[in-house]
Amino acid sequence: MILGFLFPNANEQTKLLTLMLLTRVIFGLLLAHHGFEKLINFNGMAATFPDPFGIGSETSLAMAIFGELVCSLGFVVGFLPRLVLIPMSIAMIVAILAAHGGDVFGEEEYAFLYLVVFILSWIAGAGRYSVDRFIGNKVKNIG
């Protein structure tokens, strides 16, 4: 309905692809913000960050930053989206189960929401408006 209002002359496929782009950008940037906060507070968080895999708090924090910041930026632009969604989803599963005690409807409701969006995005793919599509078109034109 909103996309119909914003783009009254666009066909349904264009509206769907635009919605996929907006979903990637919004959820990717929101999660990247959390990763950036972890990055700038690394020294303060490193000693007390949860270590669910027994690899050390610093390593666990670094992996969370990778999943939440680096992979999120790849997700935003649509670069290898299915690959970058794996660490992002793992970070959300760890947040739900280990960091927040598994109560999906408590404080970790946001992590569950992210996880649902990431699973749906993994199924749908990046869509037309993505770096992957741009690279694929360039490679196809070369060959």
TrEMBL record:
Instruction: Note the PANTHER family from the entry.
Output: INNER MEMBRANE PROTEIN YPHA-RELATED (PTHR33452:SF1), OXIDOREDUCTASE CATD-RELATED (PTHR33452)
The family note in this entry says:
Belongs to the DoxX family.
Its recorded name reads Putative membrane protein
Its membrane topology is listed as:
Multi-pass membrane protein
What InterPro entries does the database record attribute to this sequence?
Answer: DoxX (IPR032808), DoxX-like_oxidoreductase (IPR051907)
Species name for this entry?
Answer: Prevotella bivia DSM 20514
Q: Write out the GO cellular component annotations.
A: plasma membrane
Write out the entry's keywords from A to Z.
Answer: Cell membrane, Membrane, Transmembrane, Transmembrane helix
The record's subcellular locations are: Cell membrane
Transmembrane region positions? 55-76, 83-100, 112-131
